[in-house]
Design goal:
16 helices; alpha/beta; 6-stranded mixed beta sheet
């Protein structure tokens, strides 16, 4: 495709126009190659305009900008709507996806729900893809890793690869960053799950109101008759349910009256849960290998979406019961000594509380909790997490997470400041995360549970701009195998 066709009838004007063949589009100057179009977006810390020279040196043949840039000779397309123009030319260059996109948004549950839906669709023989925190993939084929909701220029390349795989459905995690930064824009969703929001990402959004308004934008992407499923037992879910104008909005939860989908936990053990879902005057009983109230919400959302998309429970109920969860989300490892280790991504106060509440309900002899907090992120949640962990844990080991550019000891002190004085005797401080995990394993006995929280699936530790290889599960396996304790 050439420049003339790529920008045909778009609102804006060319300067120094010269028609050339376009080989690619990028908003990252370091990824520009010969015959690329370079988009100048405004970032949180800098502007793409600062990198025009580098983009041209790397081969850019056109710059998209909102004002004339002097002293460059390559064509410039000047428009008031850089983001809108970017999405239009991406759709022309890569084509707009033909598969149906189901979005999942909210602070917690996105990865579990998208991968759960993918698992069920695989079992039903319906080809599908997933874009999310763990990866962008079609079955086991990894297409991309690096962003939960990738930037638009990445997103359309992923769409293109998924089109080649001939998928019918895409399950996509929709983040507040992705919505606020217009990574997702002019894309149609054929379904949306809203799990609710709790404190997170305030280093970016500053206030919960801003966070809420960013998430709300996902509903503007829905097609006219698409279903939206909302956890109305989250305060922001209740608010959004009342505010949005969506004909097919449905509520789900445990307690409130007049829920469209209501779930009950009949029993819970370390092996799974017995559940009941009520909807449309019907009751469906089944078992799941997942545990925890938060997972019951996730399962209810998955069940409801399958129903709203027109699937019959006699077809999807069996695969619904077979899903064993995803990597790093309350992932269980057993030891020969008779204790369990759970690895979880919980890195917010609400998520940590949910994981600890679930594990405490299994009545462990001791609950040993190991966690830290990320650096250069919302600092106010650190003491909150310390207080929550101290309420449940019998032994609390505070350690390193992704300190980034902060002092790990200072982060630990911030967490510790939230722990009541009467609970401090249960606290052990070990900044070396490997040693902290080893300490937890050494202290565990038959009947105990260890929760290692915060990093989940992550395979690195981010320290001063570098990502050092580190994975909680690998460390646990090394320790257990070294002690000849591993069972599964």
């Amino acid at each position: 495709m050439n420049l003339k066709d790529l920008f045909k009838n778009l609102k804006g004007e060319f300067i120094n126009f010269k028609n050339e063949e376009v080989k690619g589009i990028s908003e990252n100057s370091k990824e520009v190659e010969k015959n690329y179009v370079f988009i100048t977006l405004k970032g949180t810390k800098t502007s793409g305009k600062n990198f025009i020279k580098e983009a041209i040196e790397r081969g850019a043949i056109c710059i998209v900008t909102d004002e004339k840039i002097n002293e460059i000779k390559v064509p410039q397309f000047i428009t008031e709507d850089v983001y809108g123009t970017m999405h239009k030319i991406l759709q022309r260059f890569y084509s707009k996806p033909k598969f149906k996109i189901i979005g999942v948004t909210g602070t917690n549950g996105k990865s579990t729900i998208t991968n759960y839906l993918s698992f069920v669709f695989d079992k039903l023989g319906i080809k599908n893809g997933v874009i999310g925190t763990l990866s962008s993939r079609v079955k086991d084929k990894i297409i991309f890793k690096g962003y939960t909701t990738p930037p638009a220029t990445y997103l359309y390349r992923i769409f293109k690869e998924m089109e080649k795989e001939k998928i019918d459905y895409l399950f996509m995690e929709v983040t507040s960053h992705g919505l606020e930064q217009k990574r997702i824009y002019d894309i149609t969703l054929e379904g949306l799950i809203y799990t609710g929001i709790t404190r997170d990402h305030l280093d970016f959004h500053k206030t919960m109101e801003n966070y809420y308004q960013a998430k709300k934008k996902a509903f503007y992407l829905l097609s006219k008759n698409a279903p939206s499923l909302i956890n109305v037992e989250n305060p922001y879910g209740k608010r959004i349910f009342e505010e949005i104008d969506n004909k097919n909005k449905k509520s789900y939860g445990f307690y409130l009256e007049e829920l469209d989908y209501r779930i009950f936990i009949k029993y819970i053990s370390s092996q799974g849960m017995g559940l009941k879902i009520e909807y449309n005057k019907r009751e469906i009983d089944f078992e799941t290998k997942l545990i925890g109230k938060f997972n019951a919400y996730n399962i209810c959302a998955v069940f409801a979406m399958l129903k709203e998309l027109g699937f019959k429970e006699e077809d999807f109920l069996k695969p619904l019961t077979e899903f064993e969860g995803i990597e790093g989300r309350l992932e269980k490892i057993s030891s020969k000594k008779g204790f369990y280790i759970y690895i979880d991504y919980a890195h917010t106060p609400d998520a940590l509380n949910a994981s600890l509440e679930t594990l405490k309900s299994l009545h462990p002899k001791k609950l040993i909790t190991i966690f830290g907090a990320g650096g250069n992120r919302d600092k106010e949640k650190r003491p909150m997490m310390g207080r929550i962990a101290s309420e449940y844990a019998d032994i609390l080991i505070l350690t390193n997470d992704n300190p980034r550019f902060e002092d790990p000891i200072k982060i630990i002190e911030d967490i510790k400041s939230g722990i009541p004085e009467g609970e401090l005797d249960k606290v052990i401080i070990e900044p070396d995360r490997r040693k902290a995990i080893k300490k937890g394993v050494e202290l565990a006995e038959k009947g105990d549970i260890i929760l290692i929280a915060g990093k989940g699936h992550e395979d690195y530790m981010e320290i001063k701009g570098e990502k050092i290889p580190f994975k909680d599960k690998d460390v646990v396996m090394e320790i257990l195998e070294g002690n000849h304790e591993r069972i599964s």
